[in-house]
UniProtKB/TrEMBL annotation:
The keyword Ubl conjugation does not apply. This is ATP synthase subunit a. The lineage of its organism: Bacteria, Pseudomonadati, Pseudomonadota, Alphaproteobacteria, Rhodospirillales. Pfam families: ATP-synt_A (PF00119). One of its GO terms (biological process) is proton motive force-driven plasma membrane ATP synthesis. It is a multi-pass membrane protein. Keywords: ATP synthesis, Cell membrane, CF(0), Hydrogen ion transport, Ion transport, Membrane, Transmembrane, Transmembrane helix, Transport. Key component of the proton channel; it plays a direct role in the translocation of protons across the membrane. It is found in: Cell membrane; Membrane. The chain crosses the membrane at residues 20-43, 79-99, 111-129, 175-195, 201-222. One of its GO terms (cellular component) is plasma membrane. Belongs to the ATPase A chain family. The gene is atpB. CDD domains: ATP-synt_Fo_a_6.
Length: 225
């Protein structure tokens, strides 16, 4: 693991005038890995419907749905692909920072911004789709019309908070481990790396649950957070 500045995004190569940074390559690698694992698991589940693997995957999906049902206070099945994909991507991306030679793409601001904007866009598209544009836009003037500017500002600040929370926690953890590795070698920080792996999973869970809360507020199943 290399020690680099928190906001440094080294360029791997360029496609014409467009530079491709290492965080972008790591994010693409994370997406490719999850796609291949998903295709492999789907093929196995399709041929082993009564097998242990199929039962385990079904149990995990049911657990995720139960958690999202409780948070969103509605049937979460239409949102499981989006929210489950967010959790898997962020969790895998966070754990990539512990692999020698790789780095966590979520420790770089551009990846956190992309994830935050994906949630921001999904919230409003789903809100308009479920409630209609007139009722959804009108919800920003509740409970009083003069609160419209505050409600609009709240939409922006909570997305900014989502981005900075993920970026700050993952970046600081990766930076601390890099410092310890540079000073103590590869054996001493093993407990610290195990703790960082746990925190990476927790950060993925928090991001996913907050996205579920925002979507629940947009579709009207829960009060806006």
């Amino acid at each position: 693991m290399e020690l680099s500045a928190p906001f440094d995004a080294p360029i791997a190569f360029a496609l014409g005038p467009f530079p491709i940074t290492w965080p972008v390559l790591h994010a693409l690698l994370c997406s490719l890995l999850l796609t291949l694992v998903g295709i492999g698991l789907s093929a196995r589940v399709a041929t082993e419907r009564a097998g242990r693997l199929g039962t385990a995957i079904e149990a995990i999906v049911d657990l995720l749905r139960a958690e999202l049902d409780q948070v969103m206070q509605t049937d979460s099945r239409p949102f499981v692909p989006l929210l489950g994909g967010l959790f898997l991507f962020i969790a895998t991306a966070n754990l990539m920072g512990l692999v020698p030679g790789l780095g966590a793409p979520t420790a770089h601001l551009e990846t956190a911004i992309a994830l935050g904007l994906a949630v921001f866009g999904s919230v409003h598209v789903l809100g308009v789709y479920r409630r209609g544009w007139r009722a959804y836009l009108g919800s920003f003037a509740h409970p009083r019309w003069w609160m419209l500017p505050l409600n609009l500002l709240s939409e922006l600040t909570r997305t900014l908070s989502l981005i900075l929370r993920l970026f700050g926690n993952v970046m600081s953890g990766e930076f601390v481990i890099a410092i310890v590795l540079s000073l103590a070698g590869f054996l001493v920080p093993v407990p610290l790396m195990a703790l960082e792996a746990l925190l990476g999973l927790i950060q993925a869970y928090i991001f996913t649950i907050l996205a579920a809360v925002f979507i629940g507020g947009a579709i009207g199943s829960i009060e806006k957070g």
